[in-house]
Amino acid sequence: MRRMWQFYVLAWVAYSLLIGCVVQIDGLSKGQFDLHTILLSEVSTAPAALMLALLWPLTGYLEGKPLRPLAIAALHLMLSLVFGLCLYFLTDALMQELIPERPARSLSMAIWPFLYTLMMYGVVASIFHTVRSSLATRRQALAASQAQSLLVVAELASLRSKLNPHFLFNTLHSIIALTRKDSGAAEAALFRFSDMLRYVLDTEKSDSAPVSLDEELGFVRDYLNLEALRLGSRLQVDWELDATAAAYALPALTLQPLVENSIKHAFNPRSQPGRLAIKTQLNHSRQQLEITVSDDGPGAELSEVQASDGIGVKTVQRRLQLEYGALAQFEIRTAPGQGFAVLLTIPAA
Fold it and tell me: Which pTM value belongs to this model?
């Protein structure tokens, strides 16, 4: 706001200097410069500058009122006439005080300055309304961004809270059954389960701090190993990992919701074996990290996926947009009978 008023003052100073030079243009062509004329133009334009500054609180007042644009235009037209008349008599009285010998202006000579003041009012009022509109747009964008951020945080918290009860029953039930057959495998499963819970708790403590791709993949491996206790040979996983991408960063819990989506829709409903593919690649030329999670499940109509109320895949998409903006790409490829694939691309960091 301070910058706007600085610009306002500088604009009026430059304008008055220009008027002073124009008034004595004949003298300047002869090499004569009258400082008194410059100072006089500064004084004569000061009332207009001070009066038009009052338009700023006026535009703020009108912004909070449910007025139609036509009503606002009519109000400004009326105020511009008042402004023109007040400025005419005020300037005339001021100039008469500074230059007593100055002859009175005729009506025909006064009409043009009066019309000029109306135009001056319109320009300043339009600028102030534009600035107000721009500030309102920025506030709305900031509010929308904050709301989006709060939504993502809430959905991420929902994912974290959903993880524990979702696994608690199925995983512990599978581990209990496994202890009767292979106590060593049951112990290993318990360690994986505790590692998963520790990872979730660590991401909650660090809030939005990124993790390495290798850490996220380790979490996904533990998740899939525990799901394999229940699904058995039905779950077949293909890993195609770029070793050079392991240390690059991404938001925590980015991949697991995508994998969980495939488990839920491609493996749980059917009894025959299915294939899940996880691929990572570092694009050195574009400095991008490319990740694909796909399955050979039943697939779905893309419009149905976009209209669904599930939060897993959508939360990942919104988090990437919030974190990277236009630098992130998120694409879903699916069709009935053609599986489901999510391709995401983020800046390599």
Answer: 0.56
